Automatic annotation (TrEMBL):
This is Glycosyl transferase family 1 domain-containing protein. Residues 1-25 form the signal peptide. It comes from Ceratopteris richardii. Keywords: Signal. It comes from the Eukaryota.
Length: 493
């Protein structure tokens, strides 16, 4: 490759600044700064290493993008205009991990060099931040530089519409200064029932575009009154190199939280070693279908089967009464203890740092979750990316990526009304507990078939939902929007 002269000059400056900032950081006296008390020297120390390092990075970015020096991307693929992505990056939860997977993809690809991120939506949690892998923290810190003014920026508000400007609760609103200033405003959201409530429809229609993850939401949003011309399908990505079964150790699952531990004497097998482990990860809420899961599992298995159901949960506006909830429910539906004793059942809510999640999935043989509706199904795709066979409801967000070839969809008997909460009256799925029961038995009895499906699941994730692939789709949309906008501006002028 021929390097133009201007690039040489920029590289030379870069090298000089590097040497200078390293010297400064090592407290080496510069030859021009002999009197450390002088204004000049104090100024330089005040500017400091970080500032210089920051400039250095800007400069490298400039070289990379303006001069076509990008190692991985063709210049024509690079979106070299500012993008402000606002999402609950530091909150854990579905929107958060989705948003992280997007910015990781964009940042690693080098295709969106002027990407800025800001926290928005739910409250930031320090414990979540501490558990993030170092490279993800790095990407957030580097991109955390709000760009102002916003008039040439595409802003993406990635959260539930209640957080959008003007927000219904206290948060950094998005877009920060309302809808007028930015070049273009996109709402990224999703919903798990058969419709979207009126307030959210109104908020969606204030956006110039609304990005939803699935055909399911393309339909439910349009049917609820969101302008169909604003709807764009942008699938979620999953970090297939982080959630990868290769070179990951299985984490020995702590044998705490045994639901029937008090009846230990019923069985001498209280350890899950050598057992087939069904893993389930979800918030302790009705929507996740935990009743169905408990019913199907306890009806189907007994202590005679070398099987365990391991639930990892966290409280959802409730006390931590999981064990009592389960025991009360077992009584309510009149389940009797099997002759051979209850099968192993664990429910735990210890905090798992994001960094350790792959080790947890690796410890399981299958993933199961009969939820009544999901916007996308974050643990589902993580499990699939980890090569696990997944048993989950054949409705809502999951239908975008789960098929009978790559997983085990649970038959949906009918749609039923949501009975409580703000979405009372909407419809969602009633997955068949008997089908779930037979699928769990089938997977347990046919581990080789299940394993093969798990491999197909991983293949689907790698081929269709990897950050590389989804980043390209996002960049394509950004370019489409930008060229439409600038064409419009020039005809306006
Ligand atoms: C954006 O705003 C700045 C300052 O208000 C102004 O100088 C600039 O021309 C504007 N750019 C566009 C593209 O309107
Ligand atoms: C899942 O849903 C699809 C589409 O409605 C249907 O064709 C398929 O038979 C369903 N599979 C199961 C197991 O219910």
């Amino acid at each position: 490759m021929r390097i133009p002269r201007r690039n040489c000059a920029i590289w030379l400056t870069t090298v000089l600044i590097t040497v200078f900032s390293v010297a400064l950081s090592l407290q080496i006296r510069s030859p021009v700064c002999t009197d450390s008390g002088s204004l000049f020297c104090r100024l330089y120390h005040y500017i400091g290493f970080y500032n210089l390092a920051w400039r250095l990075e800007k400069l490298t970015l400039l070289i990379k993008t303006e001069r076509g020096f990008l190692p991985t991307a063709e210049k024509s693929d690079v979106f070299s205009h500012p993008v402000l992505w606002m999402a609950p990056f530091l909150s854990s939860g579905g929107y958060c991990s989705e948003a992280l997977s997007y910015i990781v993809g964009m940042s690693k690809s080098g295709l969106v060099p002027y990407l800025h991120v800001e926290h928005h939506g739910d409250l930031a949690q320090e414990i979540f931040w501490r558990g993030l892998p170092a490279d993800i923290k790095d990407i957030i810190i580097k991109s955390y530089k709000p760009e102002r003014p916003l008039n040439n920026t595409i802003v993406i508000c990635h959260s539930e519409p209640g957080a959008w400007y003007p927000s219904l609760f206290e948060t950094h609103t998005c877009p920060p200064t309302g809808y007028e200033e930015p070049l273009h405003v996109i709402g990224r959201t999703m919903f798990e029932t058969d419709r979207v409530n009126l307030e959210h429809v109104k908020r969606c229609n204030r956006m110039e575009e609304v990005w939803v993850p699935s055909d399911f939401n393309m339909k439910t949003f349009a049917d609820s009154g969101v302008d169909p011309s604003k709807l764009v399908k942008v699938v979620q990505s999953v970090d297939v190199s982080f959630f990868s079964p290769h070179d990951v150790e299985a984490f020995p699952l702590p044998e705490t939280g045994q639901v029937f531990a008090l009846e230990k004497e019923e069985s001498d097998r209280t350890s899950i070693i050598d057992h087939f482990i069904f893993l389930s990860i979800f918030k302790w809420e009705y929507r996740k279908g935990w009743h169905l899961l408990i019913k199907a599992y306890l009806r189907e298995f007994s202590a005679k089967d070398r099987v365990a159901l391991y639930i990892l949960t966290n409280a959802y506006h409730t006390d931590r009464t999981y064990r009592d909830d389960i025991i009360a429910y077992v009584k309510e539906i009149g389940l009797k203890k099997p002759v051979h004793g209850w099968p192993l059942l664990y429910v735990n809510d210890y905090h798992i740092p994001q960094l350790r999640l792959p080790n947890i999935y690796k410890a399981a043989n299958a993933f199961v979750l009969p939820s009544r509706g999901e916007g996308w199904g974050r643990p589902h795709v993580e499990a699939m990316s980890m090569g696990l066979p997944v048993i989950a409801t054949n409705w809502s967000g999951m239908t975008e990526y789960m098929t009978e070839t790559n997983s085990y969809p649970i038959y949906v008997e009918r749609l039923v009304e949501v009975e409580e909460g703000p979405f009372k009256g909407h419809l969602w799925a009633e997955p068949s507990a008997t089908h779930l029961q037979s699928l769990m038995r089938h997977v347990f009895m046919n581990p080789l078939e299940a394993e093969a499906k798990g491999q197909l699941a991983r293949k689907t994730m790698v081929e269709k939902y990897s950050p590389e692939i989804v980043t390209k789709q996002i960049v394509g949309h950004l370019m489409r929007i930008h060229s439409k906008k600038t064409a419009k501006c020039s005809t306006d002028a």
